[in-house]
Amino acid sequence: MAFTNNVMIVRHKLLASLVALWKENQLIEKIDRIPLEFSPRRSQPVGRCCIHKERAVTKYKLLPLLGWDMTDETDELTPLSEYARKALERRSKIKNNILCVIDEACSSCVQVNYEVSNLCRGCVARSCYMNCPKGAVHFDKKTGQARIDHDTCISCGLCHKSCPYHAIVYIPVPCEEACPVKAISKTEHNIEHINEDKCIYCGKCLNACPFGAIFEISQVFDVLEAIRRGEEVIALPAPSVLGQFKASIDQVYGALKQIGFKDVIEVAEGAMHTTSNEGKELLEKLAEGQKFMTTSCCPSYIELVNKHIPDMKKYVSSTGSPMYYAARIARQKYPNAKIVFIGPCIAKRKEAERDECVDYVLTFEELHPMFQGFGIELEQANPYKVAYESVCEAHGFAQAGGVAGAVKAYLGPKADGIKMLQFSDFNKKNIGVLRAYAKTGKVDAQFIEMMACEGGCVTGPSAYNDPMSGKRQLNQDLLKRTLKYENSNEMYKEEE
Q1: Is residue 170 within 8 Å of 187, Cβ to Cβ?
Q2: Which domains, from first to last, does the chain contain?
Q3: Which terminus of the chain, N or C, has less C-beta within 10 A?
Q4: Which of 218, 205, 136, 144 is nearest to 176 (CA)?
């Protein structure tokens, strides 16, 4: 992986260490030493005041990796080994939240978003003072320069806008700035809080935090314990797996088998059902006079519609996602198995909560530390070939334009005259455009592909490979696939 920051490296190493201990049946016995090993005596802490603070942060970062969060700590003296023991004994999901904030790590961002720089000329106009609704702007008696009383300031930004010298600068809080739906704000203790009623689980905050204070609630050890108990556990890797690891896809699947998964069923197989059903539904909706239809396979988009753009609901396809159909294929084949979706998406954890056929969700970012903890070298893994070969277009769901392209290929001549549009980044501007579409019903397209991540799922927030390499690797693999709708068996196509 081309790590883009140290936060990612630490997160990866912590999970790999936990998995390695679990494999040797030493997780409970040795987990309490991990904070000490990561911050040994006389080591130089990175971004913290001392190694004791660093050790405390490490301890709390281990909790979500075990499937807990900060609210589960009722006594600060409870050792990590106790949380590990409870994690290994856990038989059902007990956390409702998908993400959590490590309060010990969330401590160094600005409390007020505006500050006066040395560009202040102490001017006579004093527009900053005159426009402040709370009287938070004061002036130094000697220099005449402005200063902001942070106890009074409400971060409205009027001083910033009114300063003729642009001397008052805006200082963003990275996670708040990254969130496109304003789901993150400070508590009374100046710790960031994620509002689950607003969150769409796009994951932008996860990688925006410079202190690594935002974590997913992991299900890694729930999956591993199911394998250890001898249960059938089935892996459902998303199409974007093609752009993640420096090994052949058959070797990646072989590594999953080596971990202990009973079988591997590609979500691309489910994507073929999504394509056919969505294509048929599109033709039906247009025939009924509906102005346009959007895709439904991005769970972050579904959260966005349900929580922020309810007017869009009537335009959303009722077709299930590729995970939905793949899980039912797996359930039919293995009625008593645990079904595990593996992908780059945080929002899939929320979708899985609504799907009785999906038991757990892992991410690609979690998967590689699992390989590492098991001592698996992907390039040396015994290849495993899935039983069913899906068409190239189904694997193309992983990138922007892939869903629309698959539907168009499936429909063939029936798609002539149907204009398609794609959204592949849910930023504040694009969400505003979607609100306008929903309100007016006016859009210059009949079919709109919705993806929360720029470039599509292959660049998701919990992908393992870096975005550029991931997209390049995915496209190289797609070019090698010869089975397409145009030359596939007629069973793939709608009956004439």
Answers
A1: no
A2: 6-108+175-218 (3.30.70.20), 114-172 (3.30.70.20), 222-492 (3.40.950.10)
A3: C
A4: 205
Backbone angles phi, psi at 100, to 5 degrees: -145, 160
Amino acid at 450: M
In terms of C-beta density within 10 A (0-12 exposed, 13-18 middle, 19 or more buried), how is residue 61 classed? buried
Q: Residue 2 — very low, low, confident or very high, per pLDDT cuts 50/70/90?
A: very low
The token pair that represents 343 in the structure block = 């992908």
User: Could you read off the pLDDT of 447-479 as tens digits, one per residue?
Assistant: 999 999 999 999 999 999 999 999 999 999 999
Positive or negative CA dihedral for 256, 259, 263, 267? negative
CA-atom Rg of the chain in angstroms: 25
Question: How many alpha carbons fall within 13 Å on the CB side of residue 404?
Answer: 20
H-assigned helices in 107-219: 127-131, 158-162, 174-178, 204-208
Helix (H) or strand (E) holding 236: strand 233-237
pLDDT at residue number 436: 96
> Which tokens go with 134?
């709370």
Backbone angles phi, psi at 6, to 5 degrees: -70, -25
Give Cα separations from 329 to 155, 201, 236, 273, 479 (angstroms): 52, 26, 10, 10, 27
CB 416 within 8 A of CB 283: no
For residue 203, the SS3 value is coil
Reply yes or no on whether the pLDDT at 316 is more than 90: yes
